[in-house]
Write a structure and sequence with these properties.
Belongs to the universal ribosomal protein uL6 family. 20% of the residues lie in helices and 38% in strands. It contains two helices and 13 strands. The chain has a four-stranded antiparallel β-sheet with strand order 11-12-7-13, covered by helices on one side. Strands 1-6-5 form a three-stranded antiparallel β-sheet. It has a three-stranded antiparallel β-sheet with strand order 2-3-4, with helices on one face.
């Protein structure tokens, strides 16, 4: 038995779920999201909740059971609260600012890095050393944050670079003479 899979996903007020075949469409205040489940599970919408049950007892059906329930829960959270990743920039002269739909990053290169923000995600820079990525799709928010971080990942000697807020960077001691 999947502990995660057997819990129903509650639909908060203002959120509706529409089922057509194996595709579920969730509408809420922050937009509409869809997910297509595999044929190994059965989806059902009843009493303001979405339930997922496996078809058979095969290993794949049991794997898909918990994963599908988690995906549906993420859809519901995405259309109600949304997802958010916060990044911080550390380093002398390292800064970020938004100009329209472009995030301009000064990261110690000889040129400024222009990061084009994809559709469906909003990026803000409340301070010069902070970047906030928000959206209704968890995967897309995480991928955009990872792409921004990739431009200058934190290095272990001085800790300079772009890191997730609260991320611990293991520091190394420099070479001794």
């Amino acid at each position: 038995m999947s502990r995660i899979g057997k819990k129903p996903v509650e639909l908060p007020s203002g959120v509706s779920a529409q089922l057509s075949g194996q595709t579920i469409e969730v509408k809420g205040p922050k937009g509409t999201r869809t997910f297509t489940a595999t044929d190994d599970v059965t989806l059902a919408v009843e009493d303001n909740a979405v339930t997922v049950t496996p078809r058979g007892q095969s290993k794949r059906a049991r794997q898909q059971w918990g994963m599908t329930r988690s995906q549906v829960a993420n859809l519901v959270q995405g259309v109600t609260e949304g997802f958010k990743k916060e990044l911080e920039i550390q380093g002398v002269g390292y800064r970020a600012q938004m100009q329209g739909n472009v995030l301009k990053l000064s990261l110690g290169y000889s040129h400024e890095v222009n990061f084009e923000v994809p559709e469906g995600v909003t990026v803000t820079a409340p301070k010069q050393t902070e970047i906030v990525v928000e959206g209704s799709d968890q995967q897309q928010v995480g991928q955009v944050a990872a792409n921004i971080r990739e431009w200058r990942a934190p290095e272990p000697y001085k800790g300079k670079g772009i890191r997730y807020k609260g991320e611990y960077i293991f520091r190394k001691e420099g070479k001794k003479k």
